[in-house]
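For reproducibility, we list the full input for the zinc ion complex.
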Amino acid sequence: MEIRRDPITQSWVVCGQREQTDDKDAPCPFDPGVADSAKTLLIWPPEGTWQVRVIPHPDALYRVENDPGRAAEGIYDKMGPLGAHEVIIETPEHDKKLWQLSDEQIDRVVWAWGTRIADLKKDARFKYVSVFQNQGALAGEEWTHAHSEVTATIFVPRRIKYELSAAHEWFKDRERCVFCDIVRQEEKQGKRIVDVQGEYYALCPYASRVPFEIWLLHRRHNHLFEQPRPGSNRRQLAALLGRVLRRLEKIAPAFHLVVHTAPNTRNKKGELAGYWKTLADDYHWHIEIMPILEKRSKSYSIKEVYFNANLPEQAAEQLRAIDPNT
Ligand SMILES: [Zn+2]
Ligand SMILES: [Zn+2]
Ligand SMILES: [Zn+2]
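The corresponding predicted structure, in tokenized form, follows.
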């Protein structure tokens, strides 16, 4: 396996065959008993029956022991798949989904996301730590047992780079965070807001790429998801996330969820060198959820331009009308 860079778009692409381990009769790797034999990266509670457990991904895309070996091949750039790839097992119960857990349990999963990001960022080689969840077959989920994934990479993913540079530009012109500005305007207009809990907002973004795209943001500025400010009460975020997913589950069979936080600033060299100065003021963590509807024909990208047949204002209205408590 190796990672190659597209010289035009600057996207990094992981190339090569993954070791195929999927054996239909194999036991679920995340069930108690089976998962217990894997290396434990984080566990809660520390003793007794676990609720949340983090283990290395059984079929990792990136590995800690790899030598980055950044090399040139003529004009091209490539490197070895150095990094980390972990699985957060969200519940020991095989058939439960994240949205079926209690607010307290979801809060614990959200805590595990932040704890792993903070821990992996201690390694200055890792430039970015991603937390994501592919839920449902259409989203390419690898196991049905509720889990999210963490990857630490020695490059910053392209979408994050775009966000960082756009946020940086916005700040340079206005001395304000673009995400804070978005929350203020959405608050005022109200029409794209799906739900609110305390100071946490769930909204359909103005230029939603797919029907029912949802972002979760905190009203208070903070660039680091993994470092909640005092009084930010993550239990409210957990409650909001649970309600949003219970609504979505009634209209979309699958979704991608991703946590966007600031990159690792321990390594100030390289591709983002120019951005660090105002990063703490211009970037703002958020969670993005991209549902996948069965009727794919209604939402597809034509030459990289998204076509979304469903207006975000209508999507938010539909989502608000769904009872999240059933
Ligand atoms: Zn299982
Ligand atoms: Zn902000
Ligand atoms: Zn984002």
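The pocket of zinc ion (ligand 3) is lined by residues 163, 260, 286, 288 (CB under 6 Å). The radius of gyration is 20 Å. Both points were considered when choosing residues for closer inspection.
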